[in-house]
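task queued by scheduler; priority normal; single chain, no ligands, no partner chains; default sampling; output format set to structure tokens
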Amino acid sequence: MGTGKWLLRACTSALLTAVFTCGLLILGVAILAMAPRYVQTNVSIGVQNATLWDVLHHVGQLMSSSIHYLAGLIKTLFPWPFVILLLGLAFLGSKHSVAFLIGLIRLIRKIKLFGAEIELTESDKSQIKAVAADLRAATAQYRRLAQESVEVKVRTFDLDQRFQNFLEKNDPIFFRGRMKTTSNLRCTIHIRDVAVEGYLYQLLNYFPKGDDGAGRAFPERYGIIGRVWRLRAAQVVGKLIPGGPKGKTDEELVLEMVANWGMTEVEARKAFPKKSYACYPLLTDTGRMIGLLYMDSTDEHAFHDEDNDEAMIRKALDALSTWPLLKELEGIVDGLMGDRLDLSDRL
């Protein structure tokens, strides 16, 4: 879900800060406490007898005692069950945890722990699988709760209608004035996924047909949206596979999509009918990226005459930067990310 990773990062940072601070304090106090004694000892035996070896010897003793004391303090403040709990939360927060756990169950027959050997019975395995199933169910419930939170925001701020108004007003910039005649046009907005780290979330249903689509999640490596999200730069493609087909089979073209667009074969086959794509980062005046404007069509060169036309992309980005909804959208995204941390309390 991402919550475990967030908690682990926060606690790790706090742990390292505490250890570093305690180390400095202990070292400083020890030096202040031992310095007078060291000076007094050397004065009593004669300063001329205080060699470099004496100094290093005392410093070594000081460091040894300080490290020993610090280790005891860390064990007291951060006992190993607490550390294991944090690691467990991070594991459960990973999107790969369920698959990893099930695979581990299939491989492991015996476990050696603290000198004892434990053999997993079929009943034990069944119980572990049941826990994995519960974890999947909890993740699904978490996503449902997240989607409910998103839908409330969309209705409250009337995002669908305001998105439509913006595109119609800027038809000449985004569609060369041909929005109504573009075949199978689809436009939407993606934001960082509310439920799972490493995914992008479709915020709105597709415009202009209003088809379903809102609530779907795509990995950050997927297609043009993943590329724009990672590069923070607009991409406009008038022909998905430049130079194709040139005698190539559909199978060969699908494999080119897999190689060039971060898709699996299943994803590539589904996207194959779409020829034109456009995707723009939604950037605030401070340069923060809060989402993506995404468009596709079955027409070739539906959005620009040339791929990645810099002049047209600049006009589109200028229009987006002055969009009044952009500032509100930033607040909406921040609110959803806040809900993301609170939703776990409702599971």
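post-processing summary
- The first strand starts at residue 110 and ends at 113.
- The chain has two domains: 3-84, 142-239+275-346.
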